[in-house]
Specification:
The protein is α+β, with helices and mostly antiparallel strands. The protein has a 3-stranded antiparallel beta sheet. β2 and β3 form a beta hairpin. α2 packs across α3. The protein is globular, with a radius of gyration of 15 Å. The protein starts with a helix and ends with a helix.
Length: about 120
Amino acid sequence: MNSIKTGLMAIALLLSVTAVTAQIKNTKTETVKIYGNCGMCESKIEKAGTQKNITSVDWDKDSKMATLTYDSLKTTREEILKRIAAVGYDSEKFHATEAAYNALPGCCQYDRAEATKEEK
């Protein structure tokens, strides 16, 4: 029974990703590192970076890697990463302000020293 539920969830996820990608024209996909810790981080990162029919962000909390899918005629990777940094999350290219980072819940405050060290 659990394997059936798991299988159905996997199919639903695949179909939803395909549907989102199908709606975005002039699609470009890139993978970038974005720092965060938990499921709440995932929700905030994806919400900040996603714009209907323009961008889609899928962040993995274990690898800290985000897949950015976007319409290359309407936005850029940099614009997406700036929006994510504005809500408190550092990426390889943009750093959140201290105020945005400090506004994150305690569980979402990742080790910024590690983020800076990995960039060098």
